[in-house]
Amino acid sequence: MGILKQILxxxxxxxxxxxxxxxxxxxxxxxxxxGATGVDVGGTLWDVSFEDGTCAGLFGSCENSSFPFxxxxxxxxxxxxxxxQVLTADIRADPTQVNGxxxxxxxxxxxxxxxxxxxxxxLAIRSMxxxxxxxxxxxxxxxxxxxxxxxxTATTFAVFSQATSVPLPAAIWLLGSGVAAxxxxxxxxxxxx
Length: 193
Fold this sequence. Notes:
Strand 2 (32-41) and strand 3 form a beta hairpin. The protein has 2 domains: 1-19 and 168-193; 26-162, no CATH class. By secondary structure, the protein is of the alpha+beta class. The protein has 5 helices and 7 strands; from the N terminus they run αβββαααββββα. Helix 1 runs antiparallel to helix 5 (170-192). The protein is elongated, with a radius of gyration of 22 Å. The chain has a 7-stranded mixed sheet with strand order 1-2-3-7-4-5-6.
């Protein structure tokens, strides 16, 4: 019975490894965290990039319908997902690693903002503040509709887009089926002898 357990355990590990159970993957280029793929926000996978610019320039227009998280609750959930899956302790220890936060010397923090809604000239945002002490917070805040994060070295936008799912290759399922069949055959052979 020991060989069957080993075969089944190996099959389970193999299928988990290729099924995307790893979580968000950070996209680091030249030492800069420019985004991440596969961020789980309330059961939906999103890709995110950290970009400087204006609300209208990054989201096509600065209107409520332009933002992927249209309520404060959804934006808070997205912010918490970023803090737990992407802006982890290693990044929080040095906020200058985040694209758009090149100089946090004077501020010792980087603010990463998710736009929520527009009212007049005010943009409601969810702000993740990461500090060089390793601490991260998630607060509701406001900024000007025409604010340009490119003029700040300590503020950047989190731009979300829904992740495209990648189907599991058929060969993996075929291999898993073959391993399961071998295990079944081993059990059946032992039962008959």
